[in-house]
Every structure is written in structure tokens, then in C-alpha cells.
Design a protein that fits this description.
Layout: E1 2-5, E2 12-15, E3 18-21, E4 24-27, H1 32-37, E5 46-52, E6 57-63, E7 70-76, E8 78-85, E9 96-102, E10 108-111, E11 115-121, E12 126-132, E13 141-143, H2 167-170
Antiparallel strand pairs: 1-2, 2-10, 3-4, 5-12, 6-11, 6-13, 7-10, 7-12, 8-9, 8-11
């Protein structure tokens, strides 16, 4: 596998090796020792799978007081995956990186604890599968406004169609109003 630091060095793009032939393909999506050697450590305590229709935008989500690290991949379809640094002590606080994850490229994104995470569906439907380092806690769940001008995320919205948002995401606070990490 190839592991590449992004513009925010703690966020890693993982390109697992895909072995394919006329029958299909095989990809190893987690191997504790190999990923640890690349700087991605477990333990992972929860796996999640979501399906989203075309033009859906989910996020930007995070948990306070119990931050989650996430290893994210698209099992079906294609997404533009985004992570935002919410660590006030970081030189990259408020910065974002994005990557296209798809069932064709098999790429994964390591979202460390202390970051908000979201994605936009480029195809439809798209299935996202991700491993989490801590359990989901609804009372600690927070959202950050996906279109905050201070973040300047360049979402690749398609066909001039407004993104499909949950009420929570549509009403999320701006970075300047959001709870962040030390």
C-alpha cells in the first residue's frame, strides 16, 4: 500500500494494493501491523456503513470530549471526502483537505481524532464504510457548517443541484461559533 500525507500531515491518504483479474478484485482494507507502521493505530471499536443518494452532503461531523479517529472508504460509488482540523493548538486549525474515494480507486482517508468529517456523493448511490477509534455518543455529537466561508471548502457540487442536507447539517454553526478541541 502507498500512504501519502496530505496538506495536513496528520491526515493520510491510503492507497491499498488491489489485486484483480476477470473475476473481480481483492483489497486488504485493514491490517493492524501494516497500518500502525504507516501511523494509523487502532484499536478500532466500531464499524459504520452508510448509504447516500446522489448529491447528498453529510457533515461536517465530530464528537467533543470523545473525539473519533476514522478510517474511511467508499465501498460503492464515489464521494468527495473532507476533513477539517478543529484542534486550536494546531498550525492547521480551520484548514481542510479533501480526496475522492471510490469503489474504483479503493483509496481510504485517515481522519485523526480532533477533526470534523464530511462527504459529498459524486455518484449515486454511494456506500461509505468507516472504522472508528471510539464509540458514537449522541450527546457528544456536533456538526460544523458545511459551507462556512471561513473554511472555504471547494465542494465539487454537480449539475448545479443543491446538496441534499439533513436539518442538523443545514443549521450547523460556523467555525467561529462551534465547540473545538484544545
Amino acid at each position: 500500500m502507498i500512504v501519502t500525507p496530505t496538506a495536513i500531515p496528520d491526515v493520510l491518504l491510503v492507497q491499498p494494493t488491489a489485486h484483480g483479474d476477470q473475476r473481480g478484485f481483492f483489497v486488504e482494507t485493514w491490517h493492524a501491523a501494516r497500518y500502525a507502521a504507516a501511523g494509523i493505530h487502532g484499536p478500532f471499536v466500531q464499524d459504520n456503513h452508510s448509504r447516500s443518494a446522489a448529491h447528498t452532503l453529510r457533515g461536517l461531523h465530530y464528537q467533543v470530549r470523545q473525539p473519533q479517529g476514522k478510517l474511511v472508504r467508499a465501498a460503492v460509488g464515489a464521494i468527495f471526502d473532507v476533513t477539517v482540523d478543529l484542534r486550536r493548538s494546531s498550525a492547521t486549525f480551520g484548514h481542510w483537505v479533501g480526496a475522492v474515494l471510490s469503489d474504483e480507486n479503493h483509496h481510504q482517508l485517515w481522519v485523526p481524532p480532533g477533526f470534523a468529517h464530511g462527504f459529498y456523493v459524486l455518484s449515486g448511490p454511494a456506500d461509505l464504510i468507516y472504522k472508528c477509534t471510539t464509540l458514537y455518543a449522541a450527546e457528544l455529537d456536533r456538526a460544523l457548517r458545511w459551507d462556512d466561508p471561513a473554511l472555504g471548502i471547494d465542494w465539487p457540487l454537480t449539475d448545479a443541484i443543491p446538496p441534499l442536507l439533513s436539518a442538523k447539517d443545514a443549521e450547523a454553526p460556523l467555525l467561529r461559533e462551534a465547540e473545538t478541541y484544545p
